[in-house]
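Same chain as my last thread, 280 residues:
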Amino acid sequence: MAEKYVVVTGASKGIGRAAALHLDRMGFHVFAGVRKPADGDALCKEASSRMTPLLIDVSDGEQIARAAEQVGKVVGQGGLAGLVNNAGVAVAAPIEFIPIDDLRHQLEVNLIGQVAVTQAMLPYVRLAHGRIVNISSIGGRIAGPMLGAYSASKFALEAINDALRQELLPWGIEVIAVEPGAIATPIWETSLAAADEIEKRMPQKVKTYYQAAIDKARANAAKSAKDGAPAELVAAAIAHALTADRPKTRYLVGRDAQFVANIILRLPTRLRDRLMQSQG
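reply #2:
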């Protein structure tokens, strides 16, 4: 049986790491996208000899090109069975005061980077009639206080996902969105640390206007880091998306994601706003 290759970006921790290890255990040859060689080494210690670290910062065009070239040399005409666009960051700040460079960074990593990686890897996906899995979020369907920039990136990724799914239909290439709710991963700690740095660069009046909302957002992030669903739950959804005969076009992961999609989004907008504000 021919070896099946898959690329997973953002594999150094959280969902990406769980997905890379899960797919490795299933027998895939995984190219695990990491930004630091040490992260790749640590991942390989827990995986089979098939695991291949891939240095790739999705905001760096030259790194993306080199990574695609490396993948192409290995997979040859067999191509890629899958591309999992997982790399991402979460920027938290009120829209009124978010530094524009931080907003650009949010969109660069979570949206532009995903498109850049897809463009680079798609020729190999096409060779294998493989699949593309984009890790979105329930935040790509609903936006709450302090996370407008993050949700903007995920809303936009949902649009890219839908358009690409239709564009690649003639070649039988599935394009699938995975939409997790709160997942217990280091992204929450990273986001809180980034929020601290952003807050230092915002005017003092941000505390006057938004301190209560900021405190709620911090408490919610800490709760998600502690009580969120395990990353392995998302990894299982990714595996199903890559291997099922008839995969879903979207996978909601976590009870909170199901609740938001099936209940909260059906409410009148103003009621929904009040509920989100009470939680945000």
